[in-house]
Write a structure and sequence with these properties.
Elements: E1 2-6, H1 10-22, E2 26-30, H2 41-44, E3 54-57, E4 66-69, H3 71-82, H4 92-119, H5 125-145, H6 159-168, H7 171-174, H8 186-196, H9 199-206, H10 219-225
Parallel strand pairs: 1-2
Antiparallel strand pairs: 1-3, 3-4
Length: about 230
């Protein structure tokens, strides 16, 4: 059984999509990051970095329970565990390259673009420009790679595509104000639409909907999400 520590944000969404595609038995464990649950000792024992997603596989290597944190690590672990969505062995270097491009580039720059355009105080024009332009640059790199391709690696649907889907789903927030945020990136739009039409994507969107996650952006939320912006409590 997989215990899936979840909040409805892009990185957990990738893992939700894999779990639904692979039809793995799992239990959703809500982590309300707006209330600071990610900072509790219980969750830090699962992910010392205090971020979602994370999983505990009760039937891990050697039959022992094991934790995995970071969405890309989880995708690789689960794909290897199930032997699915890894593509051809000869495409492994390409798969790892694009997974880490998404993990270290498109995802983080998208996240910072969202933060500085939607959450940061006014007056951060340099940061807004920096992260928005870098998010656009990463979009263009992947869009160019997808020319005449259906999927990111090889000819089959892999965890690289799932990883991209999680953040492309938030393109309207990354590219704030764009009427058609993926309009300038037709190959990205085709990839996103192809994945989003899969039945598992609809099921992944429903993960955690029964839990009343906090939606109010008050001071508690800001301190929970951005603790480094505040002095440590005495």
């Amino acid at each position: 059984m997989i215990r899936f520590y979840f909040h409805p944000t892009p990185n957990p969404a990738k893992v939700a999509l894999f779990l639904e595609e692979a039809k793995l038995p799992y239990e959703t464990v809500p982590v309300d990051t707006s209330k600071g649950v990610q900072h509790t000792p219980g969750f830090r024992a699962i992910n010392p970095n205090g971020k979602v997603p994370a999983i505990v596989d009760t039937d891990g290597p050697g039959g022992r329970a094991t934790r995995v944190f970071d969405s890309t690590a989880i995708l690789i672990y689960l794909a290897e565990k199930t032997g699915t969505f890894l593509g051809r062995p000869e495409d492994r270097p390409e798969l790892l390259s694009w997974l880490l491009f998404l993990a270290s580039g498109l995802g983080p720059f998208s996240g910072q673009a969202v933060h500085f355009q939607h959450a940061a105080p006014a007056g951060s024009d340099y940061a807004v420009n920096r992260y928005r332009r870098e998010a656009e640059r990463h979009y263009q790199v992947l869009n160019d790679h997808l020319e005449s391709r259906t999927f990111i690696v090889g000819e089959t649907y892999t965890i690289a595509d799932m990883s991209a889907w999680g953040w492309l789903d938030r393109a309207s927030r990354v590219l704030k104000g764009a009427d058609n945020p993926l309009g300038a990136y037709p190959n990205l739009k085709h990839l996103f639409d192809t994945i989003d039409a899969r039945p598992a994507a609809a099921r992944a969107r429903d993960v955690g909907k029964e839990h009343p996650f906090k939606r109010i952006n008050d001071d508690e939320t800001k301190r929970a999400l951005f603790p480094s912006n505040y002095p440590p409590a005495n």
